[in-house]
Amino acid sequence: xxxxxxxxxxxxxxxxxxxxxxxxxxxxxxxxxxxxxxxxxxxxxxxxxxxxxxxxxxxxxxxxxxxxxxxxxxxxxxxxxxxxxxxxxxxxxxxxxxxxxxxxxxxxxxxxxxxxxxxxxxxxxxxxxxxxxxxxxxxxxxxxxxxxxxxxxxxxxxxxxxxxxxxxxxxxxxxxxxxxxxxxxxxxxxxxxxxxxxxxxxxxxxxxxxxxxxxxxxxxxxxxxxxxxxxxxxxxxxxxxxxxxxxxxxxxxxxxxxxxxxxxxxxxxxxxxxxxxxxxxxxxxxx
Length: 287
Fold this sequence. Notes:
Elements: E1 4-10, H1 13-22, H2 25-28, E2 31-37, H3 47-50, E3 53-57, H4 68-73, E4 80-84, E5 96-97, E6 107-108, H5 109-116, H6 121-130, H7 139-154, H8 162-168, E7 175-177, E8 180-181, H9 183-196, H10 204-209, H11 223-229, E9 240-242, E10 245-247, H12 249-261, H13 267-272, H14 276-281
Parallel strand pairs: 1-2, 1-3, 3-4
Antiparallel strand pairs: 5-6, 7-8, 9-10
Helix pairs in contact: 1-9, 5-6, 7-8
């Protein structure tokens, strides 16, 4: 049996969904996947007229020809389409801020606020790690707001993860970064796709063999945030995978501040090329 074309129109979360679906024999027999990363704005071209299955994340009208409304209107009549969730969770990282061009990636609003007060990096690090807990703000409210947003995004949709997030986010870490869901949520999405296509469930062997494609970067969680929220998996001593290294939260923050001192906006690139002596000499403050 020849395979039909499946277009996967999604962000980096699609990398994992593709691996899971391609590893599932019932799906792989029927479909070959072409992943268009929606954030690159690449045209779907002639593939759109040839596909028999579209798996996509919602895009608003500001995306023009790539918006969900436009793409669905151009689908061939026999093509099935399923909307995938675009998962995002700020609860573990309440200080994350979305910065514009020229500003540091994965910005931390609390660190930036302390730096804006003219404090030295050493003083910023001390206050950030050990200062008055009032500096943290209402971290539980940030988490709740993030979950409510996910619930609103998924209302009425066939595939959703917000219920899992609400039930289990305090018990186990469900996200690696704000927009990189962990294996549990990704497997749930793939399982939902298979079931809706009449091909499910996701085989247990595929779940067991799955290796997350973005496992090389876990955004460290502030230990005091973990304490406030009652997260058993967060401690000052915990080490997180960061591009081949295992860094504690305080080491990551030291690297962040070193990045800011050097006026580097590409934090992830800075971390990938981080020299060991940067961590040993940059603003040492004990956890």
